[in-house]
Every structure is written in C-alpha cells, then in structure tokens.
Amino acid sequence: MIEFTLNGKAVRVEVEADTPLLWVLRENLRMPGTKFGCGKGLSGACTVHLAGAPVRSCQLQVGALAGQAVTTIEGLAAVAADSARTLHPLQQAWIEGNVPQCGYCQSGQLMAAAALLAQQPKPTDADIDAAMSGNLCRCGMYGRIRAAIHRAAELQAGAGGTQVGVQMFDPAALTTRGVA
Ligand code: FES
After folding, report:
1. Which residue has the higher pLDDT, 87 or 168?
2. Which of 39, 59, 80, 165 is the most buried (most CB within 10 A)?
C-alpha cells in the first residue's frame, strides 16, 4: 500500500512500487487528464507537479512518492493564486487565446507553465522558451502557448477581466456515460 497526497487529498494505491505514476493516475485513480506521450521522459505530455516542481510522471515510480504531494491538471485550478477564480489564470488564458489544436499535449503544457509562473510571475520570452522546451506540441502551437503564458501572468497579477465560462470535465461521469 502506497499513500501520497493527490490534489490536496490523501490517496492509497495497491500497486507494485515500481509502477510509473502516470499509470497509477490513469488506471488506478481514474485521472485521465495526464497524458501518455512517449513513456520515455521526452514529450512532456505526462507532466505533473511533485511538491510544486514539474516532473515526468511516466518516469516517476509511485513507490518513491510515499508522503509526498502530487498535483495533476485536475487539481490545477485549486492552486490558482486568486482563490476567487475557479480556473487557474493559465486555464483562462488558454481559453481566451484558443491555444490548443489537437489538445493532446495541453495538460502537460499547462502544468509546466504553472510551475514556471509560480517561480517567475513575470517571465520573459526567454524564460518561457527555457521552461517549456521539454514540452512538445505536434501541432506547433508554441507561439500561442507563449502568448497565453504572458496573458496568464497579467491575470495572475490582477490585470484580469471577466473569467470566461466553462463546463468542468467530470472524470467520474466516464463510468456511466453511454452505458445502457
Ligand atoms: S509520456 Fe512522459 S515524457 Fe512523454
């Protein structure tokens, strides 16, 4: 039995200690927001936060997590600097900027960007390029991603505007949707 904190809540999983966190998130904990890209630590699609730092969940054995705090895309809104918002500033900026094309890499992009903004609230283009260089986007949305990170920095600083409306995805609905 391995216990750790996931998005602010204690979780327990009964898996082999060398099971990658990515598998545990998707298969055992039904948190499908974190994506499998390459399984080799190269794509960044599986990026989550471990104690606030971006890590590749495909490369992290769950046995190493005992007592530690993991945040996934499903928990990102809760770490927003402005608790009055229901989205993280990055999520709002992503929607405003219509950032994704296919969308597959975007949860990893958002988690990498969130770690950057937590460390560097007003990043330069160079800061963004350095922090995001390990997150690949096969649609080539790098320009939009960079612009959205700048916009999120504005939002985080309070130069906001109205939060856009969005219907939040409920993974629990997957178990019943479409079943007769
Ligand atoms: S799936 Fe983990 S880095 Fe590509």
Report:
1. 87
2. 80
